[in-house]
Fold this sequence. Notes:
By secondary structure, this protein is α/β, with parallel strands linked by helices. The protein folds into 2 domains: 5-96 and 175-259, HAD superfamily/HAD-like (Rossmann fold); 100-169, Alpha-Beta Plaits (2-Layer Sandwich), CATH 3.30.70. The chain contains 9 helices and 11 strands. The strands form 2 sheets. An 8-stranded mixed β-sheet has the order 5-4-3-2-1-9-10-11, with helices on both faces. Strand 3 and strand 4 (86-88) form a beta hairpin. Helix 2 runs parallel beside helix 9 and helix 4 packs antiparallel against helix 5 (141-154). It is globular, with a radius of gyration of 18 Å. The chain starts with 7 loop residues before the first helix and ends with a helix.
Amino acid sequence: xxxxPGFAPFLADPARAAVLVDFDGSLARIVDDPxxxxxxxxxxxxxxxxxxxxxxxxxxxxRAVGFLRDRLPIEGVxxxxxxxxxxxxxxxxxxxxEATAWRDVVEQAAAEADRRLPGILVERKGGxxxxxxxxxAPDRDSEVRAVAAxxxxxxxxxxxxxxxxxxxxxxxxxMDKGRVVEALATGRDAVAFAGDDRGDLPAFDAxxxxxxxxxxxxxxxIAVRSDEEPPELVERGDVHVDGPDxxxxxxxxxxxxxxx
Length: 260
C-alpha cells in the first residue's frame, strides 16, 4: 500500500504528531454480539510500533476502557472509553469526575430497559453508561429507540445514537469524541483521526475547528468505509480505506515509513 500524501507532516515531525483511532468498525469488524468483537490481526502490533515514534497514539471509543485494554494489551497507547467518560494513559482507569455520581441512576435505567425490552441486549458499560443493541432484531428498531428516549427522559439522562443499530443511555455530561480529540491535540502540529460511524463525526468537527483556529497545522480525517457507512462521514473524509484490515495496513505503512 502506498501511504497517502496527507501523512507527510507526520513523517516530517513525528514527535509533534498524533494518530487517534476508533475501535468498532475501525480496528475491529462489526459483529452481531458486541462482546465477541476483536481487533483485526496486526492492529496491536501496528499501534505499538506507532507509539514508539509518534507523540501521541490513542484509541478513542464508545467501549469501556477495560474492554479496550483487554483487546489491545499494549503499552504506550492511551485509551479513552465511553466517548470520553473513562480514560487510561498507563496509570489505571480514571472516570470523568461528574460521571460517577450517576452510577445508581444509570443502573436504574438499565434495569428498566431490561424489563421493557425482553430479547434486546442491554449492555452495561463500566457502570457509567448502557447501550441498547437491536442488530439481532432489526424489526424492533422504532420500539428500542422510543423506549430508550422515554427511559432516558424519566431518569434525567440522554439517549444519543452514535453507533450502528444501537442507542446509548448516559449521563447528561458534555463529553464526546470531539472533546477528547481537542484535548489530545494540545502540543501537536499534525493530528489524524480514523472512524467509521456517526459517533466519530464530532472528532472530525474538532479537527475542523482546531485547524481553523491555527491550533494545529494539519488535520487528517480518515473515513473507514463499510456497507453501513454514514454518507456524511465519507463526504468529510480526507482519506478513505475499505474496512479495518485496510486501515491497519495503512497505519502499518506509516509505522514502517517512520522507522525507516
